[in-house]
Design goal:
single chain, mainly alpha
């Protein structure tokens, strides 16, 4: 099921820099005041505002995505034991049960996840990403794309399957797939791209 994006919110969800996102959110919020708008503001605050150092921009969701990818790649002897850890991360990224009760809040969460995935993928363009030969040799564009695909799959479908939380992670998985495909129009699906690299 596609989740439509309000045209006035498109600049907010396509921007990846926290300070610029805040300006765009404020501009949109001045025209609307719904339960979903408050949830959107709460998601922004949870993700980007450090109460101890409010002058600094942070991205907790980016950190959470990296943590989920790490869990998927290093499951240990008993991967199901990581379920509690994954649930805790999901809870931190969802805040509360508003997305479960209100379709508009669910849409806000979906688009926030897509933005986090977009920011993650943007970091993969750096030549230092996916270095080879013990970190000595910069990776080429093809190598970075393959590693990026693996990472995005790992923090979504990979970890969901590993710990048996496919239903609970369905919004994140859908967001990861949709954003990956939007940024790579030649790809049929994230799963198909991941399987192509595994052959």
């Amino acid at each position: 099921m596609a989740i439509e994006l309000h045209p006035l919110l498109e600049p907010y969800y396509t921007e990846t820099e926290p300070d610029l996102r805040k300006n765009k959110l404020d501009a949109y919020s001045s025209t609307s005041d719904t339960k979903a708008d408050q949830y959107r503001k709460d998601l922004y605050a949870c993700r980007h505002i450090d109460k101890k150092h409010p002058e600094k921009s942070i991205d907790r969701f980016l950190f959470h995505l990296i943590s989920l990818a790490t869990i998927a790649k290093t499951p240990g002897l008993f991967p199901k034991f990581r379920k509690k850890e994954v649930r805790s991360i999901l809870s931190a990224m969802q805040l509360d049960d508003r997305p479960l009760q209100d379709p508009e809040c669910e849409a806000a969460l979906y688009w926030e996840y897509r933005n986090a995935v977009r920011r993650y993928i943007a970091t993969c363009d750096d030549p230092s990403y996916g270095r080879t030969l013990l970190g000595m040799k910069p990776s080429d564009a093809a190598g970075r794309r393959e590693k990026c695909c693996e990472d995005v799959w790992s923090f979504s479908f990979g970890v969901a399957s590993l710990v048996g939380l496919e239903r609970e992670m369905s919004i994140l998985c859908r967001a990861a797939n949709d954003e990956y495909c939007a940024l790579n129009p030649d790809v049929e699906s994230l799963e198909a791209e991941y399987n192509r690299y595994r052959k």
